[in-house]
Amino acid sequence: MDLALATRLSLADFHGPETDDPLAPPPDYLEWRAATTWATGLYEKSLLGPPTPRTELDVGGQRRKILNFASYNYLGLAKHPATIAAAKRALDDYGTGACGSPILSGMTDLHRELEASLSRFLGRESTMLFNSGFGGGLGSLQGVLRKGDVAIVDQKVHMCLLDGVKLSGASLVAFEHNDPASLDAALTKASGKRRLVIVEGIYSMDGDTADLPQLLPIAEQHGVQVFIDEAHSILAIGPKGRGVAAHYGMHDRVAVQYATFSKSFAGVGGFVSTRKETLDYVRYYANPYGFSCALPPAVVASVLAGLDVATRDESLRTQLADNADYFRAQLRGLGLDVGRSTTHVVPIVIGDNRELLYGLQYAMLSRGLFLAPVDFPSVPMDEVRFRASVTAAHTRADLDEALDIIARTVVPALRRAA
Ligand SMILES: Cc1ncc(COP(=O)(O)O)c(C=O)c1O
């Protein structure tokens, strides 16, 4: 396959059942992979240390010191002494794994303590833990929606929510991103059906927030409840870190709050918080909950410690917001397109030139900067990008060094390509 053709193709082109054997990938996929190792080699890179601002990465088989803007360690809790000590204590006391589904034998007093702490933190009646963030989003929706229901989702919501709706058998209707008129039309069209509106707190590819002040009144006019995915916003935004709904002073008007432990909590897993009656039902119908092992106690303990550290005061969130504001403003000053971002998730939009995206990734890595590339179909074809995850742990020197590398690589390349 020649390079020009390979560059035009993407993962979206190889999803058909082209072979007789489901275990045999499409031959043109294999050809495409072989022709694009220069790009695919940039995915699944191995960190050789913690997901902190200064760490080490395997770059072409070599151990390299890098400045990391690719990890979701938003509050720097991955290496916080309190989260590490709590995990170590739990390892000693409870062993490595939970060794059972939460329904049968995997639940411990630590899991119950985390459920109660999260419910208190969010002022909600009940909380359910999942061993995966993805499974939590999927399971929460699969647990409540049924065939005949209509899930009305912002077009930019995460795959786990789309998969949850699909698995539930409900119909999926997407409204234009953050567009109240489009939401209104979708709700009107589905009137008479059981409906649920689904949005994200911070959109993971764009770094903007759900426009709740516009959207929520529309949902309320239709008498429809809202489910929010606070994966990137929990602990990171809003008073005490309660998320985007709280940030807009609309916490009590959003019925269901779901989030993951993989980002600001620097662990793994997820949770959903809402009315007790709802979750007492969902526990028995969310397959990723009932048919999968509970979180390891050491993870639960580190999440509990992280919750304590992050809610003690506002300092980590203030640092995060200051760092993100500075980084975004400097990128804009360099003439770069950071899209709609208003948060610590900061895209640098390259456009439709995917060869340039990957070329720049190599150039930045060779200068010691690790930023995640995001290609179609995860983002629109003409908006491929880098996504920078700014954290509270980045120092001003880290931010400036990254900006300098970006100024010396991305800026001239985009100017040349224009
Ligand atoms: C918005 C959103 N929801 C859910 C998830 C799934 O979370 P996890 O990675 O913890 O499985 C992600 C993951 O990146 C996400 O960005």
Account of the 3D structure:
- Helix 9 links the parallel strand 6 and strand 7.
- The chain is globular.
- The strands form three sheets. It has a seven-stranded mixed β-sheet, sandwiched between helices. The protein has a three-stranded mixed β-sheet with strand order 1-2-11.
- The protein has 418 residues and is of the alpha/beta class.
- The chain is built from 16 helices and 13 strands.
- The chain folds into two domains: 137 residues, Aspartate Aminotransferase, domain 1, CATH 3.90.1150.10; 234 residues, Type I PLP-dependent aspartate aminotransferase-like (Major domain) (Aspartate Aminotransferase, domain 2, 3-Layer(aba) Sandwich).
- It binds pyridoxal-5'-phosphate (PLP).
- The site of pyridoxal-5'-phosphate has 14 residues, from helix 6.
Describe, in short, the structure shown.
The protein has 418 residues and is an alpha/beta fold. It has helices spanning 3-8, 27-35, 37-40, 81-94, 109-122, 133-144, 159-168, 180-189, 212-221, 244-247, 276-282, 287-290, 297-312, 315-333, 354-366, 396-417, and strands spanning 54-59, 62-68, 126-130, 150-154, 171-175, 195-200, 225-229, 256-260, 270-274, 345-351, 369-370, 372-374, 384-389.
Could you give the topology of this structure?
Blueprint: H1 3-8, H2 27-35, H3 37-40, E1 54-59, E2 62-68, H4 81-94, H5 109-122, E3 126-130, H6 133-144, E4 150-154, H7 159-168, E5 171-175, H8 180-189, E6 195-200, H9 212-221, E7 225-229, H10 244-247, E8 256-260, E9 270-274, H11 276-282, H12 287-290, H13 297-312, H14 315-333, E10 345-351, H15 354-366, E11 369-370, E12 372-374, E13 384-389, H16 396-417
Parallel strand pairs: 2-11, 4-5, 4-6, 6-7, 7-8
Antiparallel strand pairs: 1-2, 3-9, 8-9, 10-13, 12-13
The structure holds pyridoxal-5'-phosphate.
